């Protein structure tokens, strides 16, 4: 487990076609909601209670999603995990929850979509309703295996070596920004089945703060961990090629 405390929480800043991506053009995939160092705003506010109902946009009303709300106005030394409000189970429909009056990032995750809203809850009205929109960004495909054979790749900037099965692709590998000028020591990227629309299998290499109990299982590999939402479909076949191939290339003389 890459996290020092054994916890993994997927930092989510946006949606590509199949997963979420980090800010500043750096991608990561993972089920939690926000990176503490990047998203916390200084200064707590006076809190009161509001009954808020969050719903999905038209066309997604019956989608089963996991809901969460992360305060964005916590002091810098706050425990973000403790402050997060998470629905106890996935819901097919709106989420109604009592929240304090403050600034939140509200997120909903299905198997293939991410919905996200930044909202400030005021004391009035005491009962509020908010629609949480679908996030949609284009995926950044850096490497693609388009032939009928397994493809090998070497990413010079990160020294990551890997192989992809036919029909799979990878985002640009990177060292995650941990905030306050710190960079991760392990390489991160996303390997995904390059299919039209949603539903393709995906593996995340060293996602930042991924919580396995919520997001999905992780497996140890030579360069860290590979994590996925679901081991069904073609995920196992993808891992069989990608997992053993992962390596760090020697430093050039």
Task: Summarize the model shown.
By secondary structure, the protein is mainly β. The chain contains four helices and 18 strands.
Give descriptors for this structure:
globular; disordered N terminus; 5-stranded antiparallel sheet; 7-stranded antiparallel sheet; 9% helix; mainly beta; single chain; 253 residues
The rough form would be described as: globular
Number of helices in the DSSP assignment: 4
In helices, the fraction of residues equals: under 10%
Terminal CA distance reads: 31 Å
Number of strands: 18
Q: Report low-confidence residues grouped into runs of 5 or more.
A: 1-46
- Sheet with the most strands, sense and barrel status: 7 strands, antiparallel
Residue-averaged pLDDT: 78
Order of helices and strands: HEEHEEEEEEEEEEEEEHEEHE
Strand content: 35-45%
Rg over alpha carbons: 19 Å
**Structural class designation:** mainly beta
